[in-house]
Write a structure and sequence with these properties.
Blueprint: H1 7-13, E1 24-27, E2 34-39, E3 45-51, E4 62-69, E5 74-78, E6 88-93, E7 98-104, E8 112-113, E9 118-121, E10 126-127, E11 131-139, E12 143-145, E13 151-153, E14 159-167, E15 186-193, E16 198-199, H2 202-209
Length: 215
């Protein structure tokens, strides 16, 4: 299947209307972070924590966590709820560690690298026999420039549509964060409770889970 064939499926996702949120609170035992968490029918979990001051008025950092069954090749998170013109977070396992890639698509083809979102990998990232887990502080996931060149910020005091995609086929080079990869096997959307993801403990979680820098 070619990348151009995904256009219709992604466009249909963009028409849903905000309703009751799909997330629930979850405390990650490994990091102590309280997330708003959503798990797809395919067993992929997307979690988010925000600072208590997050609104739609100014850009803010987020803590993102993605947990994926090891049998899947890669999983992706679209922060604007569609494939194009918003940050995309892709994660996969190279067999022993977790790789991540910051991407953005400007059309319905392989997304290119995106330097508007940067990640600091936190504790709670790794691979076990059943899943791989990516936990990171992201700067630029919750704000970006839209198709018309206008700045956009997710309203941290509300809720929003996110989109996901995944494939059972591994990326072409699992050790390379810039690797190409095949078309997704499935896509979907969920409504994430951003307001419920806010916490005054956010700075403490970042500090406690940032690995020490080796001198």
């Amino acid at each position: 299947m070619k990348w151009s064939t995904v256009a219709a499926s992604v466009v249909t996702l963009a028409g849903s209307v905000l309703a009751q949120t799909d997330t629930t609170p979850f405390v990650d035992a490994e990091t102590g972070i309280t997330f708003q968490s959503y798990t797809t029918t395919d067993g992929i979990t997307y979690r988010l924590a925000l600072p208590d001051t997050a609104t739609g008025d100014a850009a803010y950092d987020v803590i993102v966590q993605v947990v994926v069954p090891v049998e899947l090749g890669w999983a992706g998170w679209a922060w604007g709820g569609a494939m194009t013109y918003n940050p995309l977070t892709l994660v996969w396992s190279d067999g022993t560690s977790v790789q991540y890639s910051s991407r953005q698509a400007t059309g319905y083809y392989l997304p290119g690298s995106y330097d508007g979102a940067t990640y600091t990998v936190l504790k709670g990232t790794g691979v076990n026999e059943t899943h791989f887990k990516f936990t990171a502080l992201c700067t630029g996931c919750a704000s970006w420039t839209d198709f018309d060149g206008n700045p956009f910020i997710l309203n941290g005091a509300g809720d929003t549509n996110f989109a996901y995609a995944f494939s059972a086929t591994p990326v072409d080079d699992p050790t390379d964060s810039e690797s190409s990869f095949s078309i997704h096997d499935n896509v979907g959307r969920w409504i994430h409770d951003l307001a419920g993801a806010r916490s005054e403990q956010f700075p403490e979680w970042v500090t406690a889970n940032t690995p020490a820098t080796e001198l």
